[in-house]
Amino acid sequence: MKLAVFDFDSTLMDGETIDFLAEPLGLEDKVAHITKRAMAGELDFFESLVERVSLLKGLSVDEVNRICSSLPMMNGAEEVIIELKKQDYKVVCFSGGFRNATTPVCKDLGIDADFSNILHSENGFLTGRVGGDMMFSFSKGDMIVRLQNLLGISESNTLVVGDGANDLSMFKHAGTRVAFGANHILKKEATHIIDSGDLRDIFACIKLTK
Fold this sequence. Notes:
Elements: E1 2-7, H1 17-22, H2 28-39, H3 45-54, H4 61-68, H5 77-86, E2 89-98, H6 99-109, E3 113-122, E4 125-132, H7 139-151, E5 158-162, H8 168-171, E6 176-180, H9 184-187, E7 192-194
Parallel strand pairs: 1-2, 1-5, 2-3, 5-6, 6-7
Antiparallel strand pairs: 3-4
Helix pairs in contact: 2-3
């Protein structure tokens, strides 16, 4: 058995969920600017996440779910997941984003589990507060070690794919580290770099038995 862990925003999905959620509030530029700096490692991930989610206060949960139901997938996402599953990979998604997006998408793609954050709401509207599995810069690294121990999978049999600074912690615990359309800070720690925007190029990074 092997383990493949994918980031969600700008990796499995083509864009940043929180940027899409900010659009109906007219705050997409402000939120996108903070997101960009956080992914480049210029801001503390926890603080930037709390700040960005606070700007979503008042957005209806129905609108959140509507937006999350139509997010654009990255080229090749479905094909890559299907092939990895054939090759005895457990495929998991780690996201600093939100379950409203990751859970339905991962179910559709056949991904085994998703770990992400929860947008707090009251009476059908976001309160601007957030909590969950992936709140900190170290969260992905912490969770991947737990999964490796639980499943009995070594670092050498672990593939990780991500694009931002909050993926650094999981890169430390994987033998194959793919920086996908990534910031420079992540590329420096990668074993493979893909800038094509097509996840199917991962096949050139790993040994697949046909």
